[in-house]
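Lab notebook, bench 4. We co-purified these components, and the gel suggests they stay together. Before we commit to crystallization screens, I want a quick structural picture of the whole thing.
Request: model the full complex, all chains together.
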Amino acid sequence: MAIKIMIVDDSPFSRTLIAETLTDGGYEVVGEADSLETALETYTKVKPDIVTMDIAMPDADGFEISRALLRQDSKAKIILSSSMKDEETELEAKRIGICGYVQKPVEADTLFAIIHKVLSPDTLFQELLARGLDTFKEALSQNITRMAKTTVTFLENTEIEDPYLSKGITAVLGVIGQYSGTMVLDVSFPVAEKIAETILHRPAKSPEEVLAMVSELANIIGGIACSMLNKKEKALGLRVSPPSLFHGNSAELVSPSVKIQKALAETAYGEIFLGIGFKKGSTLWM
Amino acid sequence: MDVTLINPFLAAFTEILPQIGFQQVEKNKVSLVGSTFSYNGILLNIAMVGSIKGVVLIGMSSDEAKRFASKMMMGMPVNEFDKIAQSAISEMGNMVCANACTQFSKLEINGLDISPPTLMMGQGQATLPVPQAIVIDFNCDDIAIKVYVGLS
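Here is the predicted assembly.
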C-alpha cells in the first residue's frame, strides 16, 4: 500500500509541485491544506502517514500548525520544508516535535530519503532505551560505592508505584542532546543524612548541607551516565542540566510525556530510587 | 533583576496561551525569590540547557490546575487531576518553554533546548540550582499561575 501524504502549504503552486513529485515517487497524496483550520480538518479526515509542512504562511505559520496537529495527534509525523536553513529553525522544529526538515526547493530524492527515514524504526533511540537505565544504575552504583563506601544492590522485580510518592528529597535533572530526557533521584532525609555523614566524615551541619549533597550526587550520577552513553554512541551528545530539588515533600511525581524506567537501589543506609526516561523523536535534517 | 530573562516568557505566554483556549493573559507582577521556596499544589519542572542554563518551574494550586486543564480541553469538566489533566498541563509547559527558547533566540541567546516536563503534585519546598529566581505572576482567564525562572 502506498504511503499516504498530506501537504500543508499556502501556495497552490508549491502544493502542485510537491504533489507531483510525491506521486511520481509512488506516494499517495491524500490531502492538501493551506491554513490551520483546513490542516486540522483534513488531517482528521485523511489520517496521513506523513505531513509535509511549509513554514512561512500568512496566518498561522508552519510551527503553529505543527503544534496544533501534534496536540491533536501526538504521533503525527511532520516534515517541515523551508527555504531557511539555520540552527535555530532546526532547534525550534526539534523542540516542537517535528520529525524532519528539508530545505526548499525540495529535491525529489532528498524528500523520499527523509520520508523513508522518518518511517523507519529509530535504532539509535531503541539502543538508548535498552541501555539507558542500566548505565544510570552503573553510574549510581559506582559513585555511591566510591563516595559513601557502601555496596549497592538493585532490587529486582520490585513493583514501584505510579505515580511515585517521594520519600522526602527528590532531585530532578534534565537531559538534553539528540534525545531529551529526565533523571530522578529520590531518597528519604534520614538516608541522605547518613550518606552525607559518610562522605563528609562528620554529621552534616544543617539540612541544607544534606540537600546540597543530594544535588551534587544526582549531578555526578547524571553527568557520568551521560558521558558513558556518549562514549558508546557519539551521536547522542547528551548533556545534563543542574538539578532542581524538591524536599520536605509529601508529593507525588509524574512524568506525563516520557515513560520513566525505575530502579530501587539498596544500600547500607537505606533505599535510593532512580528513574530515567527519554523522549522519542529527534529531528532529521536533510 | 535581569529583564532579558523575563521578556521571552512574557512573549511565550502571550503567544501560546491563546492557541490553547485562553482569552486573557495578564502579567500581574514580577518579583525575586531565593533559591528555596514553598509550594502547594502542582509544580511543573522543565530544564533548559544551552548558552544559558537552569530550570523553569510553573506552579498552580490543585484547584487552579484542574480549571486550567479544563480550559485546555475546551471546558470539559475536570474533577480529578488525572492523567489527561496532568498531560494537558505538561503539554502547556512544554509549548511555553519551547516558545520561550525561540524568543531567546531573537535576543541572540541561541542553541537552547528543553527537557521533558516532570510534574510534582502535593506540597513541600523546591530548591533551584541558582541563587535567586525570578517569579512572574500571571493571570490567565482568572487562573493564577506562577512561573519561576531559574536561569543563568
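Residues 97 and 114 of chain B are 7 Å apart (CA to CA). Worth comparing against the SEC data before the next meeting. Strands of chain B lie at 25-49, 54-60, 113-114, 118-140, 143-151.
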